[in-house]
Design goal:
By secondary structure, the protein is α/β, with parallel strands linked by helices. Helix content is 32%, strand content 27%. It has seven helices and nine strands, in the order βαβαβαββαββαβααβ. Strands 1, 2, 3, 4, 5, 6, 7, 8 and 9 form a nine-stranded mixed β-sheet that branches. A hairpin with a 5-residue loop joins β6 and β7. It starts with a strand and ends in a 13-residue tail after the last strand.
């Protein structure tokens, strides 16, 4: 049974949204995970107490505090450096994952031992609690990936692959996941599409999911 390290850079999300993100990991049916929450010097006073409260109630939750704001690439790399899992999963601080997400990823990993990267289908979570805009993705297409980051969420990588390619690269803040996926899939032995909606992008004014033009 592999361990999943879930990397979540944190910068000033609303309190109730941050709690929901953490709760979605704690609700997982698969038990061997660690959630690494990297606070990137959030200015709001509510953020750190929520993180430390969660860590105090669950030993699988790890809180890292950056002394200066360095951006999402720096925070993500701090999380990678702390991770101990065989697989690395990416979760934004204002999104949630389905309760069986890790269980299903593990099932595919057991069935296909050479799986070095996988991505799932996804949808959006509206402010009034509805799940909308499901994106049922095509199977692995390197040609499509070169023009669109269609893989996006829920992305899970073998940790050894990320170590091989050097993790996130400086200068790619805002498109760091796309850059990472492009480089990882060039080296991956097997890329797998998991045809289930495992990830919910929360629609907020400050999120990409809330920006119709960006989508």
């Amino acid at each position: 049974m592999p361990r999943f390290s879930i990397i979540t850079p944190v910068y000033d999300p609303p309190a109730e949204v941050l709690r929901a993100t953490i709760a979605s990991v704690q609700a997982q049916t698969y038990g061997d995970w660690e959630l690494i929450l990297v606070d990137d010097r959030s200015p709001s006073a509510h953020v750190l107490p929520i993180l430390h409260e969660a860590a105090a109630t669950d030993s699988r939750i790890i809180v890292l505090e950056r002394s200066v704001n360095g951006g999402i690439v720096a925070a993500s790399n701090d999380g990678l450096a702390r991770a101990s899992g065989e697989f690395i999963a990416l979760l934004d601080h204002d999104d949630t994952i389905e309760r069986r997400a890790l269980e299903i990823v593990d099932m595919y990993a057991q069935q296909q031992p050479e799986m070095d990267y996988c991505y799932s289908d996804e949808d959006h979570h509206t402010p009034d609690g509805r799940y909308v805009n499901p994106f049922y993705k095509p199977d692995w297409s390197p040609e499509r990936l070169r023009s669109q980051n269609y893989c996006c969420h829920f992305s899970v990588f073998r940790a050894s692959l990320l170590a091989e390619i050097g993790g996130f690269r400086d200068g790619f803040d805002g498109s760091q996941d796309y850059d990472l996926i492009l480089r990882a899939t060039e080296r991956a032995r097997l890329v797998v599409h998991i045809p289930f909606v495992l990830y919910h992008w929360r629609q907020l004014p400050t999120s990409v999911a809330g920006d119709a033009e960006a989508k």
